[in-house]
# Entry
Amino acid sequence: MPRVRDVVEIGYWTLEPGPRNSITDVKGVRVGHATLIEGRGPLVPGKGPVRTGVTVVLPHGGNLYKEKVVAAVHVINGFTKAVGLVQVEELGVAESPIALTNTLNVGLVADGLVEYSIRVNPEIGITAPTVNPLVLECNDGYLNDIQGRHVKQHHVLEAIAKASESFEEGSAGAGTGTVAFGFKGGIGTSSRIAKTSLGSFTLGVLVQSNFGRMEDLIVGGVPVGMYLRGSGPSGTSGSINVVVATDAPLTPRQLRRIARRVQSGLARVGGYAYHGSGEVVVAFTTAYRIKHGAAELAHLASLPDEALNEFFKGVIEATEEAVLNSMFNSTTMEGRDGHVVRQIPVERVVELVKSGRTAGPRE
# Structure
């Protein structure tokens, strides 16, 4: 499947991507999926059809509970059932893999993260503090038997075990049943190199796209959604989750500033943070490993705020590209009750972007 920059020239992207153009360009970051596709036909709640999964982001390959990463969260629109955000906001660190799944599976996926953490750290809750599992979610119920809560503990462990630098985009893992702008959404990623006077750093983005009205879709500054017809729901409900990673030495406050700029990247593709859309950003840096709790944060050496401009620009570009990659790499999916959501018509979008049309009726 093509990635958007392989087929569309977007002239206002000026920062260089990393070698994979992926969140895993940040050294040590790995991503894993467990994808569940079973059955077809009428919905039988609790039985199927199943079109869902889980995606995990591992900030590094060590023991995350003992070697936490500096992190921050930003909630653009709080129509979400995510767990773990409050402690990250309070303490400025993340101590578990970051998992993405469907709305009603949050509890079971959190349980999987707890089980993983206990297996690696059997002292949790006995001689050591408890663990804060971090789970983000999107509603994939248009295609999936969401009441079935089909993602189980072993699927979370499977995704963690499979995590690597290379991973599938589009209809995989937590993106298996998602819908974006009336077309098939999913998992997408991108990265940028932020060049500062103090050195070059990498910033990567991963999204789980499940949001947007079709008529709002913008590609390369062209409102292509005005000329397209999709097959999925194109209302105001839905969500998008964004994970931002960097290797730059930054504080939680600085990461939060970068996370806020994600909204500008979503706006570039036509995201308006409508009432029913849950939009959450988790950002972390791999520059430090916090071994002794939040007290260490007071002694971190970090870049000056004046160096953040390249990160602001980079996260906006990478977010926009990641969303488009999530759609360009997804395939048409038939789900429960015969619901079909088509892949975005890539050739037609390329044609529209090249022609630069900006107004007129949908064809």
In short: The two ends are 25 Å apart (CA to CA).
